[in-house]
Amino acid sequence: MSVMPDNSLASAQWGSTPNPRLAGARPQVPAADQTLRILSLLARQPGPIAARTIATQLGVPRSSVYHLLATLEEHGFVVHLPAERRWGLGTAAFELAGGYTRQQPLAHLGRTLIAALADRAGESAHLAVMTGRDVLYLVEERAPRRPALVTDVGVRLPAHLTASGRSMLAALPREQVRALYPDAASFADRTGRGPARPGELRDLLREVRGRGYALEDGEVTLGLASVGVAVLDHIGWPIAAIAVTYPTDSARDAGTLAAHLAPVASELGRRIGGARR
C-alpha cells in the first residue's frame, strides 16, 4: 500500500490541485511550459533573436526549441527571418495582445482622456490598438460639427494607411515590421494613396520616427487627414495609439495637433503602467 504525499492528501481533502511550481515539482506538461516560456522571452525582446539564444536563456535543448518554434510558426505565433536567422513574434501573438487590451480597462482609462483631447483640439479623437496588420478602434469622440468617421468603435482598418497604425509601426523593431509586411501583397488599399511596397513603408516610418508623430492625408477617407502618436509600455513597445482627424481643407497645423496628443499619450501610458513619453 502506497502512502499519499502530504500535499496530495491536502489536495484530495480540499478538492484542489497543488501548484507544481509551489510544490517544487517539474511541470506536468513540459512542452506547454517551454512553449509559453519561449513566447514570454520573445515578448520581452526589443527585436527578433536567434534560436540558440532562446535555448541558452531558457535552458532548453536546441532541438526542442526548433521543434516548438516550427509549431508556433505554423500557427502564426512566431515568424522566422531566414536572412538574419532570427525569430520574432507573429501576427497571432498580436491578436492575443489585442484581445488582452480589449478585455482590460484600456478603453475605460482612455475614454475621459480622449474626450478631453477632442475638446481641446476641436477635432474628433480616437484610441486604437494593433491587431495583426490592422488597427482596432476602442474609443471615438466626435467633435461638434465634424463629419462622421469610419473609425467607429470596433472597426478595423489597415494599419499602414492610418496615423494610429503608422505611429505604432514606427515604434516596432524594423524586423518585426518586415515580418508583418514581407511583400506587396501585404498592402491593402482604400483610396489609391499610401505605401504599396515594403520599401515605401520603410521610408514612411523613418519619417514618422524623425518627426515624432504620424500623419495620413486622404489614405483612409478622401478629404480627411489624421495625426497619431503611439502609447508605449515600460520597454518602449507600442500598446496603443491616439489620433485626431480633421478635414483637409480646415488648414489645421499637424504639429500643433501633435502637441495636444503627446501629453495625452504620456498620461495614458502612465495610467496603464507604461513609461512616460
Describe the structure.
It is a single chain. This protein is α+β, with helices and mostly antiparallel strands. The protein has 2 domains: 26-89, Arc Repressor Mutant, subunit A, CATH 1.10.10; 94-271, 2-Layer Sandwich (Beta-Lactamase). It is 44% helix and 18% strand. It has 10 helices and 8 strands. The protein has helices at residues 6-14, 30-43, 51-58, 62-74, 91-103, 106-121, 163-171, 174-180, 198-211, 254-271, and strands at residues 78-81, 86-89, 124-131, 134-141, 156-158, 214-217, 224-232, 238-247. The strands form 2 sheets. A 6-stranded antiparallel β-sheet has the order 5-4-3-8-7-6. A two-stranded antiparallel ribbon has the order 1-2. A hairpin with a 6-residue loop joins strand 6 (214-217) and strand 7. Helix 2 (30-43) crosses helix 4, helix 3 (51-58) crosses helix 4 (62-74) and helix 6 runs antiparallel to helix 10. The chain is elongated, with a radius of gyration of 22 Å. Mean pLDDT is 83; it is low at 1-24.
Number of distinct helices? 10
Q: How are the strands of the largest sheet arranged?
A: 5-4-3-8-7-6
What is the string of SSEs from the N terminus onward?
A: HHHHEEHHEEEHHHEEEH
DSSP strand count: 8
- Kindly name the structural category: alpha+beta
End-to-end Cα distance, whole Å, is 64 Å
* Fraction of residues in β-strands: 15-25%
Helix share, percent: 40-55%
CATH architecture of the largest domain: 2-Layer Sandwich
